[in-house]
Every structure is written in C-alpha cells, then in structure tokens.
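Quick one:
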Amino acid sequence: MMKKAIIIHGTEGYPEENWFPWLKKELEQRDYKVSVPQFPSPPGVLPKISEWFEVLKDYEIDGDTLLIAHSLGGLFALRVLEKLDHPVKAAFFAGASVGVKPIKFYDGDLAFSGGFDFDWDKIRNNAGHFVVFHSDDDPYVSLANGEKLSEELGVKLNFVPNAGHFNATAGYTEFPDLLKTIIDKEYMDIAIELSKKAMYPYGSIIVKDGQIIGRSDANTPVSKTQFGHAEIIAIDDAMEHLGGHLCAEGGQGVTIYSSCEPCAMCMGAILYTGIERLVYGANLDDSKECVNEILAKAEDVANACTNRKIKITPEYERKQAVKVLKHWRDNN
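Output:
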C-alpha cells in the first residue's frame, strides 16, 4: 500500500503557506503521496464545513493515510474522523480549536463546526495514533484547547513554548518537530510489528542517521540466552553491523525504538552504549501481566546514571503496543 498524507490548512489558508510546502517535500522524499487541498475559505467569508467535505471527496483516505491538520483544519479533521467508517494511520494537530475560550474567532469556529460536542470514542477509534502540538502564546487559540484535545485523545501534549500559531508569522516555514513525530511513527510501527512475531510480545530497532542498524529479530549470540530481551538483541545486532562500535561521538544520531518500556537490565545496556534517544510504546505497568517482575522504571534508571544522559519519548503509540500485549496475554 502507498503511504499517503493529507495536509489540511486553516481559516483563509492555502497550500503554499506556512510549513506546508516544506513538509510536503520532506514526506515525498520518504515516498509519501502528499496532498494539500485548497478548501473554500476566502478572506472575510465564514467557511462552510459542507463545502470542505465536498472538496475532500476527491481524496482517498484509507488505513495508510496520515491526516495533518493546522488551526481550523484540526477542527475539520475531528469531524472527518467522526464520519469515517475505517481508521486512518494517524492524525496530527497543530494549533487546533476545540471550543475552549479564549478563541479569537470563536463564533466562526462554532458556526463552521456546528458546535463543539464531539464523539470522542469514534474519533479515538478512527486513528491508530494521535499527535497534538500547541503553544502558550498562540494569539488565536488558547493553550487550553491543546490540553483538552490531547486529554480526550489520550496522548501527551507536545507543548512548544513561544511558537505562536505555528504559522509563518511565528517563523514556521518549516516544522521539524512535526516531521520527527511522523518519522517516529514509521519506526515505531516496525518495532511493534516485530513484537507481534516474537516469542514474547516485545520488539525493538536501532536507527542511526536514518538507517536501521539493529533489530530484535536478528539471530545473534545473545538472542539464544535468557538475557535476549528485544533491546539487548537489537544492540547486539547493531554492534555486529558497526564492527563493535555502536555509538561513536557520544551516540549522536542514534535512537532505539522499543514497543515497550525497557526493563532495568535493558535500560542499563542502552545507557552503557551511549544511545542518544529512546522512544517506547507501552509502559512497564501495561506489561505487568507478561513479565514476572518490574525492577525499575526506565526514567528511574536513566536518572540514576550520572555519566550518561538520554532523551526519552515515553508512551509513543502506546495504544497499538498495548494491543499486542493484550493479544499475547489472551493467547498464552
């Protein structure tokens, strides 16, 4: 299936504004088919959601589609997710309004949306993953909207201070943080797929400079021992590929993706190698039914290490990772 992305602009917006052309180019380089529709929103005229749905009919939306929405586009994306009869791959929101005052154009947003009551259950079930960005100095949509949206979707808010409305006025002709979350989604999907095929429901990959250099399904010496946890196997595989040196120059550019939060042993190994960043899905509490004992949380192990530091993105794609854990529990 072809990877697809639809970028949805906001009030009086157009495809060539803000970070839309930059993100389109970046995603096309990663083999996405990217569409940036022009929705009817002329200056000084209240947009009509019925006309936006009419435009959207020309675009295919399926399980390999990313919805990427800015400002009023986020409100529209929520209504789209309410109507779909199948889930999209993921939905990303930046500066979206969900009806929490102050909102500069509250009446216009209200009229466009037909109210601010949402079928959150339907929305949550109609995307495999959600990402929400909001700032504290947005002149149009208050931070409380991003907080409410992330809470309803069950994800952590990506709070970016002093980012305004994530538009060109605020300096956003590029949006690297958003692109990073999309790339994280791609790699975490691979880790979760590995967890589905493993004897125990855990998967991990290691990425350096955009290339996968270690996988938990590798046939390495450690994979045949009781210490062969997903992260340890992936590290061992990466060492093999790199001739025994995993993280030269302090681990810059090296990220490990794990379907579940690493145990104390694996976290120690990750820190020992100097890996720069950890992204994990389910947390250790989620996996209690699949392991005998939880010795320490990953963040606790990292904080106890005084000579190695690591960036941690927790509970990324947690919903998908937990599904694998539950399936394993119910069938073993």
